[in-house]
Amino acid sequence: MSESIPAVPLPVGGDAYAALRQAVIDWLDDHYHFGDAATLIGDDDVSFLDHAILDSLGFVNLVLHLEKVYGFRIDRKDLSRANFDSLRKIASYVARHRDFRGLP
Amino acid sequence: MTAFTRFCEEHTGERFSDYNALQRFSVAQRRRFWGLLLRWSGLIVEGTAEPVCAGDQVETAVFFPRLRLNYAENLLRAASSGDDDRPALTACSESGEDRSLSRGELRDQVERAAAGLRRLRLCPGDRVVALATNSAESVIACLAATGLGATWSSVSPDLGDEAVLNRFRPLDPVLLFAHGSHVHQGVVRALDERLETLVAGLPTLRGIVWLDAGPRGRDALASRGERLSSLIAAGEPVLRWPRLPFNHPLFILFSSGTTGAPKCIVHGAGGTLLEHVKEHRLHSDLGAADRLYFHTTCGWMMWNWQLSALASGSEIVLYDGSISYPEDDALWRLVSRRRVTVFGSSPTYLQYCRDAGIVPAERVGLGDLRLLQSTGSILFDSQYDWVRENVKPLPVQSISGGTDIIGCFVLGNPNLPVYRGESQCLSLGLDVRAQPAPGSAAAETGELVCAAPFPSRPLGLLGDAAGRRFHEAYFSQNPGVWSHGDSIRITPRGTARILGRSDGVLNVRGLRIGPAEIYHVLQTFPELVETMALEQEAPREPGGSRLVLLVVLRQAGSLDRALTLRIKRELARRASPAHVPALIAEVAALPTTFSGKRSERAARDALHGRPVPNASALKNPECLASLRAHPALRLEVEAV
């Protein structure tokens, strides 16, 4: 993934954050960690790449999933550590996306 | 290809106006063809090349029964003076640290390793196994062992323990080659515990050879083995390789099917080598100026295929690690860094690149790249376009064959144009046909069969002395011809499209998955009464399909998230991540015939909304409507 300008993180707490967070954990469990994702991640700011939670291929698959579930297109230029490399960053990115219309 | 064509014309007095004429000759006069190829190849052999082929039945014919050769010797030979300084292989890793060996260095290390293996009493006919990464050490070990006449089988560390033991145990191996750890996504993963399980499960082992430092923290285990580096350091080079029969067992590869344990497919040295030389030098135009990188692991036949390219003087590039670490375009960076001329890839990887927005041409220099090959699953028309627009305009060869023949039935041709979505030609010397369904007229489309003997037909299946299972696997469906399990369309111009599997074997994300290994794991779940693994066409998924698992539960309605995750976890752990279904769906019943056999074909047809031709043969045809209407199994229709 490339680097870009750091994003403003979504504050912890709140229904949107909790739901987005859980959706990512569920997806990780469904496809990669089968119930161990939350334990492996530990902290919402842990780097997915540095802790082998997801690799670039996995991020692409996650992006495709997010596009399908939330109904918007993610610019591939946004595929960066700053936007995707932790639970908090992913939830923040989705919530901030201009085409995000709320939780399905 | 041109030079070989002229060679055939000189020695036959015939004129081949085009490739198809040469291909027809190679099939109609197979003895002349294979004899000419052997002569033209310049392989080091001894004995007599006559008879070229004893027998006319595909199932039982024997090629070059009076010829002897050594596989390793042919890969390691010095073709000319100065050859020793040319690169033989470069082993690459995620860290970007590349390690190269010249042809002279590789030969020296293999010869010394072989001397060390001889001291460990390795003899012709012994079987050895390897749990190994795609590294220089794996190549050295393989060539040293096979050079002495042992039979080699290897798997990669991503295969689960049970799956590894199911493959290795029947071989009664005498030596285990293993890495103590491997690196994936920047993380060093120790294999200690797994190696203990493996060693305990292989009671016939006489010794272990560590391909790296071995297991750490397991002193007792580590002390049972010797390091390959020590064998090399201590060994005097083997000065003369034994010349073994053309049909001496070289590799045992594994193919998982719809039922039973994986098949242990025994491949002969001469047939493998001659077939690979043909595919490399003629169809791929590989030579001494080439650097071949085929993305593979030690557990896939493309590793063996790539290895043989040493016999054509090419440098081989090895890579072990994540395709997308540390950068998402890691493989393209490697192709550029190592100035790869022929890149072997897959539709799954090309789709990943497209989905990730990777434009290789914008990121790296690919001036040396002259050919892209693809195998594993169907390469869609749009993917040819993607390569042209995002990589560079270059030939794209979609090649297809399989572990069963350690080669290809359809592949490329440097002298022919590329048509989107099509393999360029049928393989020389192989009588590939599209067999129509019984009672149907001949057509372009049908079951892929090979109707005449070919040298890379396996010697047989291990433990099948009478050949009953061998016959059942490949010759029972269409008597007298080899049935491959693929559907094919052969066009009037001689190109081909593989249309998918015609048997119950699954191909998901480019990986061949035998449902039997899935069922073997699932039988330990008391919650499950019946299960069925199917491949569902899914154009948006990598490889164009996804693995779906249908389950009938002891307690209806009890498929909850916890059970779903537990099933997936066990499949990943005991089989491999590739065996994990994308979707698990509860059904009330599975289509079953009156004889009690479940019908994957009926389930597949219902899943895809197709009419089920044999519904009257089912005792529960009403279950098909439920399958068709199952909400979890619906796919959104999206443009590819």
Question: Notable features of this structure?
Answer:
heterodimer; A: 104 residues; mainly alpha; Non-ribosomal Peptide Synthetase Peptidyl Carrier Protein, Chain A; globular; B: 640 residues; alpha/beta; Rossmann fold; GMP Synthetase, Chain A, domain 3; 3 domains; 21 helices; 30% helix; 24% strand
Number of helices of chain A: 5
Instruction: Please count the helical segments of chain B.
Output: 21
Total individual domains of chain B = 3
Largest interface: A-B, 23 and 26 residues
CATH class of chain A: Mainly Alpha
Shape-level CATH architecture of chain A: Orthogonal Bundle
Short summary:
The complex is a heterodimer of chains A (104) and B (640). Chain A has helices at 15-33, 37-41, 56-70, 81-84, 87-96. By secondary structure, chain A is mainly alpha-helical.
Please outline the helices and strands.
The complex is a heterodimer of chains A (104) and B (640).
Chain A: H1 15-33, H2 37-41, H3 56-70, H4 81-84, H5 87-96
Helix pairs in contact in A: 1-5
Chain B: H1 2-12, H2 19-28, H3 30-41, E1 45-47, E2 53-54, E3 62-63, E4 67-69, H4 71-76, E5 87-93, E6 99-102, H5 103-119, E7 127-131, H6 136-147, E8 151-155, H7 161-168, E9 175-178, E10 181-184, E11 187-190, H8 192-200, E12 207-210, H9 219-223, E13 225-227, H10 228-234, E14 244-245, E15 249-255, E16 263-268, H11 269-283, E17 291-294, H12 301-307, E18 315-320, H13 330-337, E19 342-345, H14 347-355, H15 360-363, E20 371-374, H16 381-390, E21 396-398, E22 400-402, E23 407-411, E24 425-426, E25 432-435, E26 445-450, E27 460-461, H17 468-474, E28 482-490, E29 496-501, E30 506-508, E31 511-513, H18 515-522, E32 528-537, E33 545-553, H19 561-574, E34 583-586, H20 600-607, H21 622-629
Parallel strand pairs in B: 5-18, 7-8, 7-9, 9-12, 12-13, 17-18, 17-19, 19-20, 20-21, 33-34
Antiparallel strand pairs in B: 1-4, 2-3, 4-14, 5-6, 10-11, 15-16, 16-27, 22-23, 23-24, 25-26, 26-28, 28-29, 30-31, 32-33
Helix pairs in contact in B: 1-3, 2-3, 5-6, 5-10, 20-21
